[in-house]
Each structure stands twice: as structure tokens, then as C-alpha cells.
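Journal club prep — side note

Before the paper discussion, L.F. wants everyone to see what a predicted structure for a comparable chain looks like in C-alpha cell form. Sequence:
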Amino acid sequence: GNQRENYVKQLQPTHKAIDRLHVRLLGHCASGKTSLINSLKSGIF
């Protein structure tokens, strides 16, 4: 299957930088989700 080949290619190491990454954060209220997002966006972590 073509989907399987694409998935395996994504798992292989590469020197190419990742421009974008989609992440979903789940957690309780006041657990720091927004603070983590703001920290990652600003580059301070």
C-alpha cells in the first residue's frame, strides 16, 4: 500500500528541518497547556 510506504518514509532519519508540526495538547484546567504553547512559540523553553 502507498499509505504504508509514506508512513515508513516518515519514520526514517533525515537531515531536513521540520518547518511545521501539528500538536494537540490535552489536560486539565490550569495544567500549563497555554504556557507551554507560548514558551514553544517564543523559543524559550
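L.F.'s comment for the group: The radius of gyration is 16 Å. Keep this in mind when we get to the figures.
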